[in-house]
Amino acid sequence: MAWWVWILGGLGLLAAEMVTPGGFFAVFFGLAALLVGGLAAIGLSGPPWMEWLLFSVFSVLGVAVFRRPIMRRFKMTGGAKTVDRMEKETAVVLEDVRSDRAGKAEMRGTTWTARTAGSVTLSKGQRCRIERIEGLTLWLVPE
């Protein structure tokens, strides 16, 4: 590949990192492409397969070695933050929920599978507090 293709690709990846709310990955691929483009410009990159190999190695090494320290330095969490918690909210029982079988409950306009702990039975129409959520199942306690 021509050296200027690597440079354009690298600049494009850096621009993509700046305009997308990602996990801080594209910058390493962009920098690797710029590095391979620089090596190709001065004739040190070798044949096209070697350029792709260098790009792959530089990209993976950049992510593996530099991503975590850079994210720590700029105080980036790198994971999704919990914006909304549903524990302690109220749900309405749509069908009876007994300790031995699941039922249905409505919360925020959505129907959920509902269970209750212990020997408590929840009746249809009863308002309950969400104790915890496991997958798509609400664990309810009476209010």
Description of the molecule:
- The protein is of the alpha+beta class.
- Strands 1-2-3-5-4 form a five-stranded mixed β-barrel.
- Helix 1 runs antiparallel to helix 2 and helix 2 crosses helix 3.
- The longest helix has 26 residues.
- The model has no long low-confidence stretch (mean pLDDT 88).
Highlighted features:
143 residues, alpha+beta, 3 helices, 41% helix
Summarize the model shown.
By secondary structure, the chain is of the alpha+beta class. The protein has three helices and five strands; from the N terminus they run αααβββββ.
Q: Count the strands?
A: 5
The number of helical segments is 3
Biggest β-sheet, characterized? 5 strands, mixed, barrel
Helix content: 40-55%
| Beta-strand residue percentage | 15-25%
**Unreliable segments (pLDDT under 50, ≥5 consecutive)?**
none
Q: What would the average pLDDT be, to the nearest integer? A: 88
The helix/strand order is HHHEEEEE
What is the rounded Rg? 27 Å
Distance between the termini: 68 Å
Structural class of the helices, strands and pairings? alpha+beta
**Quaternary assembly:** single chain
3D shape: rod-shaped
Strand adjacency order, main sheet: 1-2-3-5-4
